[in-house]
Input
Amino acid sequence: MIQITRLSLALIALAAAFPQQREVNPGNPTTLEDFQAGDQNREALQRATDLVEATKAAPGDWVADVGSGAGYYSMRLSKMVGLKGKVFAEEISTSMLEKLDLRVTLFHLANVELIHGDDDNPKLPPASLAAVLVVNSYHHFEKYQAMCEQILQSLKPGGRLVIADYSLPKYRQKTRADQLKIHEIDPEVVRAELTRVGFRVLTCEDPFVKRMPDAAFSYGPKEADLYLMVAVRPQ
Output
């Protein structure tokens, strides 16, 4: 028969009173705290408020976050358009869609609709959107012409496409394929691709965020600068 000493009982009682804290895991979020920990550096590392304001999204608008990942910018857009608006959060990755769905649930984002897109079609409603946001995802567009054409058709005339992506000038002479291998893309390549399908590029702030080689972040290549490009569907 196992003997339980007074000390053992005291230790059991102490453990019950002070349960072991779960370590926060922003890299694989499953709780509200995980998401909040992963979100906390976005302002410093990506100028998140200035970035979403470039969409000029207003209450009641329909907008999209293409390549939304775990949904940080979908959440920011959700607040901008309000309950009378709608955010289409698009992803092609099933694992990311699961994280995105969890964020929608935990943060009660009632105006966010998930879309499982294809690599050549984000499956957005035609001629309905005031803005489309693409953050750190354009360089993943292997079928970029089809994607750009589909995004153009999803926008209302005058609707805005806002692209934030990474690039350093020293790599811009590489081929498009080689730039994609290091998760970068030259903004002039993007400008040409958008113009070719019918967009009008308004501005390109390059760099939008200047990065340092030892920056501790997980939203892009460690040495690359972030640029911000704004284009519109012509009236």
